[in-house]
Amino acid sequence: MAAGYRFFVKGFGLFALVSALAACGSSGGKEKFAYVERPVEQLYASATRELERKRYDRAIAFFEEVERQHPYSSWARRSMLMKAFAYYQGNDYDEAVDSIDQFVALHPGNKDAAYAYYLKAMCHYERIRDVGRDQEFTDNAVAALTDVIRRYPDTEYAIDARLKLDLTYDHLAGKEMYIGRFYLRENKHIAAINRFKKVVDEYQTTSHAPEALHRLVEAYIELGIVSEARAAAAVLGHNYPGSRWYRDSYRLFEDRDVLAVNATRLPTADGGGDDDQERDPNETLRAINPAELGDVTPPSARELEDLAPDQEPEGRISRTP
Fold it and tell me: Mapping DSSP to helix (H, G, I), strand (E, B) and coil, where does residue 27 land?
């Protein structure tokens, strides 16, 4: 490439190069070059050199020159995708997505199509916001990552997409937990139950599932619906017997004196308990068979509205997240 560049300078002269650079203008943050026909190898080499120097605007301008001057060459196809990458590196994700969509529309069967779909997914993934804000980008990331896995399941891009998809689901579950905790603090138990139930149903493989089950126990106990609280606690004990959330749920039952009649005591710090023997925590709620609890179904709004005020338990539950 360096030899080609020297040949170019000798052939066209320093004046042509300086004139082309002097003609660079600014339009919407993008550099424009006066049309001076140059070898495609030289243009592409200049683009990649600017990309390596993190001069993304100039790199994009050179890639666009490749497309403009040599539109039917393999270099033009490669430049189209590299331009999208330059936009991505410059955090201009909307422009990157537009460039990728153009590439895929024009070259759907190209060998680099898998990378194009992966890069599009990353444009959405990089814009995921914290759980306290709108999750539109998170939803877009889920759709794009799923698309990569579906289209190219045996590629390295699919492997990384699966890892990022798990993290994205965990983020969406965190959003539901964030809202659910807020509703629980505000004593809006039905709304809280709906959020925690969504985590259990749709994001059960995420790190938030144990807490979601525990929060369901909290909400049901506060509403006085002990049977549903026991059902949620049984699922929690069956799947996460050693978790802090199961022990917290067990203590709630103890504090409210609503443990099942045949429930055994959790081991204490000194190793005590029923018969001073450590027992399987799954046995503490044996009134419910976890294997038969395929789902935890909350009562309908009408059923909860029919609850008389005196059916609600007295006192309040600590809801520190």
Answer: strand
For residue 61, with 0-12 CB atoms within 10 Å meaning exposed, 13-18 middle and 19 or more buried, which class applies?
buried
199, 296: one domain: yes
Q: How far is CA 168 from the centre of its chain?
A: 2
Beta bridge partners of 26: 31
Give Cα 223 distance to the centre of its chain: 33
Burial of 247 (0-12, 13-18, 19+ CB in 10 A): middle
Print burial letters for 207-229: b (CB count within 10 Å at least 16), e (below 16). ebbbbbbbbbbbbbbbbbbbebb
Instruction: Answer yes or no: is 318 within a domain.
Output: no
99 and 206 assigned to the same domain: no
Stated pTM of the model? 0.66
- Would residue 117 count as lying in a domain? no
Chain centroid to CA 5: 45
248-277 mean pLDDT: 61
CATH number of the CATH domain containing 20: 1.25.40.10
What CATH number does residue 236 fall under?
A: 1.25.40
Structural domains in the chain (count): 2
Q: Beta strands of the chain (E only): which ranges?
A: 25-27, 30-32
Q: Are 157 and 118 in contact (CB under 8 A)?
A: yes
Closest CA to 268 of 286, 247, 237: 247
Give per-residue pLDDT as tens, 179-201.
999 999 999 999 999 999 999 99
What sign results for the dihedral spanned by CA atoms 158, 152, 114, 135?
negative
Q: Which residues contact 129 (CB under 8 A, 6 or more apart)?
A: 135, 137, 138
Q: Which of 91, 110, 129 is the endpoint of a domain?
A: 110
Residue 57 lies in a domain: yes
Range of the structural domain that residue 27 is part of:
2-110
104-116 pLDDT tens trace: 999 988 899 999 9
